[in-house]
Amino acid sequence: MSGGAQVAARGVDASVRRGRISQPEGGDMGRTGQAVKARWRAWRSAVASGSRHDRDRGDVPGWVMITVMTAALVVAIATLATPALQNLFTSAINSVSGIGGGG
Question: Where is this region: Disordered (predicted)?
């Protein structure tokens, strides 16, 4: 069991002992309580075995590829658009300030 799961399990156990979380009398939890208990046990066993962590880790190369491709697109667009943007900026400044003989 991972450190976070152990802390969570200890916190729940301690809260039950201190009376912050009540348990039904006679162990009759009802259908909702049984469902919650079953999910809790499934979560604890999944965290203890590390199966969810292993499953989530598999998409890292995909995100790396998306990041690299996005950076390449930004560089390509910036390379193509830089001269036009410089000319646009220069002409806008010259028309506002009157410096440079334009306008």
Answer: 1-34
